[in-house]
Design brief:
Chains A, B: InterPro entries: FAD-bd_oxidored_4_C, FAD-bd_PCMH, FAD-bd_PCMH-like_sf, FAD-bd_PCMH_sub2, FAD-linked_Oxase-like_C, Oxid_FAD_bind_N, Vanillyl_alc_oxidase_C-sub2. Two copies of one chain form a homodimer. Chain A folds into four domains: 89 residues, Uridine Diphospho-n-acetylenolpyruvylglucosamine Reductase, domain 2 (2-Layer Sandwich), CATH 3.30.43; 117 residues, Uridine Diphospho-n-acetylenolpyruvylglucosamine Reductase, domain 3 (2-Layer Sandwich); 105 residues, Alpha-Beta Plaits; 83 residues, Alpha-Beta Plaits (2-Layer Sandwich), CATH 3.30.70. Chain A is an alpha+beta fold. Helix content of chain A is 38%, strand content 19%. The structure holds flavin-adenine dinucleotide (2 copies).
Chain lengths: 459, 459
Amino acid sequence: MSALLGLGDMLAGRFGERWIAHEAGRAQFMAAEGHHAAGMPDVVAQPRTIEDVQMLMAAAHAAGVPVVPLGVGTSLEGNAGAVAGAVSVDLSGMNRVLEVAPEDLLCVVEPGVTREALNEELRATGLFFPIDPGANATLGGMISTRASGTNAVRYGTMRENVLGLRVVLPDGTLIRTGSRARKSAAGYDLTHLFAGSEGTLGLIVEASVRLHGIPEAVLAGSWGFDSLDGAVQTVIETIQSGVPVARMELLDPVAIRACNAYAGLTLAEQPTLFVELHGSPRGVAEQREMLSAIGAEHGGGALTISADRDEQRRLWRARHAALPAARAMVTDAVTWSTDICVPISKLAGAISGARAAIDAAGLLAPILGHVGDGNYHVFFVLRRDDAAGWAKARAVNEELIDYALSVGGTCTGEHGIGIGKRGALVREHGADAVALMRRIKAAIDPAGLMNPGKIFAEE
Amino acid sequence: MSALLGLGDMLAGRFGERWIAHEAGRAQFMAAEGHHAAGMPDVVAQPRTIEDVQMLMAAAHAAGVPVVPLGVGTSLEGNAGAVAGAVSVDLSGMNRVLEVAPEDLLCVVEPGVTREALNEELRATGLFFPIDPGANATLGGMISTRASGTNAVRYGTMRENVLGLRVVLPDGTLIRTGSRARKSAAGYDLTHLFAGSEGTLGLIVEASVRLHGIPEAVLAGSWGFDSLDGAVQTVIETIQSGVPVARMELLDPVAIRACNAYAGLTLAEQPTLFVELHGSPRGVAEQREMLSAIGAEHGGGALTISADRDEQRRLWRARHAALPAARAMVTDAVTWSTDICVPISKLAGAISGARAAIDAAGLLAPILGHVGDGNYHVFFVLRRDDAAGWAKARAVNEELIDYALSVGGTCTGEHGIGIGKRGALVREHGADAVALMRRIKAAIDPAGLMNPGKIFAEE
Ligand SMILES: Cc1cc2nc3c(=O)[nH]c(=O)nc-3n(C[C@H](O)[C@H](O)[C@H](O)COP(=O)(O)OP(=O)(O)OC[C@H]3O[C@@H](n4cnc5c(N)ncnc54)[C@H](O)[C@@H]3O)c2cc1C
Ligand SMILES: Cc1cc2nc3c(=O)[nH]c(=O)nc-3n(C[C@H](O)[C@H](O)[C@H](O)COP(=O)(O)OP(=O)(O)OC[C@H]3O[C@@H](n4cnc5c(N)ncnc54)[C@H](O)[C@@H]3O)c2cc1C
């Protein structure tokens, strides 16, 4: 704490009330969304400008104080968790949309802008920003975890949608990466090195991201199936045939039960796809035909999708609330959302294997996810004191990861490594590749001050 | 040379005739495509296996011998040029397609596979690999320069199409990056760090790349315009309206003249777009209507595009041969192809500015390019001994880069930095960002043995 106190003194003039050291204030920044034990930050700094961040970083660097960047703390693997003796940097106040350039299909934002605020701001332009994690996360957090969401199957993830960044390095230096052009071959791709680095390399203070035209026609709806495997096979063949679905989400019967209860839906408790199609009126009609034909082969009911915006909104609001909905299934429960991604042809094996493992362990855990990407989540619903349940969930989680790795998949499609998947990272990439990542980390952050203990276990 | 001789002795048993030290042999590996003075490699090694590469790299590392990875040497900024005292590593013999996985829309290749060989291999699958630089380049070279081509406007560049790599690091260690899943948030994005690193960080020995379904319907043709600006405005509005064109290439009247003469086309010498549309029969019809309507506003002639595969092939063969076609305009000429990319809304200014600068300098230089990406090329056609011409071309090149940077663009959309744009790299990203790139380089290649002098000027 003494280094922190010294830092506070140094920055007092600049930060004033935006340097939060009292407990009631700090308690609001515990980043407690995930299932990991949330720590209380020792101190929280709230920069408002790039210069604030530069000064903070330079001072922390000089004082040897670790820095934990924080968006709105909705990440699920302890990615933004407080670290003892560190300053947590709350970026949610740097939340201006600096520029919207419809003519170049891009905008420039401060890191604390949330996806909902951004889309609100874009309303009049006919454009939208497609990446939509269930939470109303910040763009800085989303870039830092390579987040995605329901639209990624068509529009890509944060990786494909970030064009350039401004980043404050651990010593306070400000750099610019990328450009406003759609492509570039100019030097190392720093933009994509920072994207997904979970605050361990520097602090993103500005981002240019791609925008997309709001489609002329949108059809969406839910689609019930006789069997889980039938729903999944429909997804696989849809992707393999290149139907450009905009959203293709799976909810298993347990997830449907949770959403019915929580969000007032009245869907049959069966394996269900939530589907959305974007295009011209003729284009979406054509996509609908192709989808119907594929689903009919696999026990799909009638594909009743509609253009009614209110119904669509209700559907996606329910989908986005699936995690709290799962939590609400059991009084005083915690959810542990694990996130797996496999090559599309392996999705059926992955999901039937997950269901079998969950059932064999006797756990309550809906399965759902952005299946068009081969990405699914399991929400383990557990009471904190259910030690046996947690042990079983840990074992099932490892089993899901092992399966994914055995078929060429990844231990996380979008949530990142945080503290929860540090071991899996080594299993996935091998010790030599992770050693290389550590060398890059050491080159950029030699003192190891940026978000220590995340991605890599401390040595 | 003495370190090289020692290295040769060390590797003699393994490489035998694939260690080429005699002049006639080495002369075939001069990577002389660009306008930069081509050097003769002192020695060329031809690995056939990953183990060959590992042994070579470990031995070079031990002996302190620099290594220059080489695909087929078609890069245009001296990226693969020989370095005195170095071993040039010819990867064109590692050219097997290791696996085609249509069910996951991907394939796994050795680095020396060329784009044409790959598509030949994919013929029976209904899938294709879209990235098509004009030359029949290798996948390893294309990944290393973040290459693109005519299809990138729809299918993305190498950046978007590479899923994972196997890389031999400078000390001979073999690592794996990425996965076969469509997305991943697992650790630093090493795949995209190596992509575009121009052989300065390691040697790519295997790559997994995305494949795409061959579209049901393809329409293509050339489209003449009254004015250069009209053609460019048509491109801008097409992209802004989100018409998913598959190819949209500009050829100015000088380029058309060159292609008519070289490739036997009979097009009117006017600003021309080569366009291709992919989709369902109804989808391409719809795209054609939208395009026509946009072009009609800007002095476009009739949009006569057809489904005739032979005509389409003739058109694209002519487009791909535009560089030799330009060279053939003047006896004993050399072409200098520069490569600029700007945000789409700035394309009109960029191209009219380029034409004005070329004309003011009195140079012969067709303008053409992948304009759907905001990417264009100027082919300066020069005799080697025309010192004044070269000086003027240098000045115009700097002017084009300055304009691009002033509007948020990049000094290279797809050719990379090589030796030709090292100064521009610093202007584009700033000294601090380039210093960070150098720190990453030093972390991965501490002895500075990988392709020295490329991307960064030697210190
Ligand atoms: C109900 C619910 C649903 C979710 N659904 C999805 C989903 O569909 N897809 C998905 O991808 N995720 C999902 N998530 C997870 C979460 O929303 C994402 O991880 C999101 O990207 C986190 O954003 P945040 O602003 O909350 O960042 P935080 O949690 O505050 O931080 C995330 C990471 O980024 C770092 N960071 C934050 N800001 C910066 C910055 N400016 N510079 C450098 N580093 C920074 C932090 O240090 C941390 O490592 C969900 C979460 C919840 C609670
Ligand atoms: C007529 C013509 C048209 C062209 N059109 C285009 C175009 O439309 N778009 C475009 O992007 N480019 C174009 N180019 C440029 C060129 O084709 C590309 O730069 C291509 O990517 C080079 O591939 P290559 O196999 O020839 O690689 P090389 O030129 O041999 O090498 C390129 C770079 O990659 C490195 N490298 C090669 N293999 C490896 C490996 N396995 N591991 C690590 N590093 C490696 C080299 O060291 C070098 O830095 C064109 C060139 C010509 C001659």
